[in-house]
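Question: Hello, beginner here. Any chance you could explain the protein record under this note? Any guidance would be welcome.
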Amino acid sequence: MSDTERTGGRHLDGGRPLAAYADPLYVVCPRCGSRATVMTRPDLPELRYYAELRFRPRRLTCGDCALTREWTAERRGNALIGVRLGGPDDPFFGLPLWLQTPCRGKVLWAYNERHLDAVEAHVAATLRERGSGPAMSMVACLPAWVKAAGNRDDVLRAVEHLRAQHADPHHRPSAAYGHETPRRTADLYAGPPY
């Protein structure tokens, strides 16, 4: 069963964590402002657990200006220090996510189309059910303003805006202006994850 099963107005939360949506991530290229992609390196062994995505080496690539950068997890002794997922910035390079837009005085963001589909399925449903999965699924961690029935129409309009934004890899999201330079990863996570 998929993580988002929608029949009519029903949505079943399959328990997938935010990490399940963290590959790839679409970001604003720090050189040219076009859409760039952050992905795990293709030469790595198959993923065993979604949590591994927080530690796996990443590659930033921009198809427009040919920018390429590498990220590897910091080591402290024998331990790898992974990133904390969440927020409108990419946790690996500190760049603004491509899929973000103002909504209800906040910022609605998504890592990629699958993430956007899952948020949309949950928000659009009039009957929302939890599966037997973990309590900390991506859907369970959505902020109350995204899940509020009174905000449904505004959030769904924002989702459609994000879909249109994704279709144009050269139209920089307005919500990404104001922090063109990469932020220090430690500075990104002072608040809640969404």
About this structure: Residues 90 and 97 are 6 Å apart (CA to CA). Residues 152-167 form the longest helix (16 residues). Residues 4-179 form one domain.
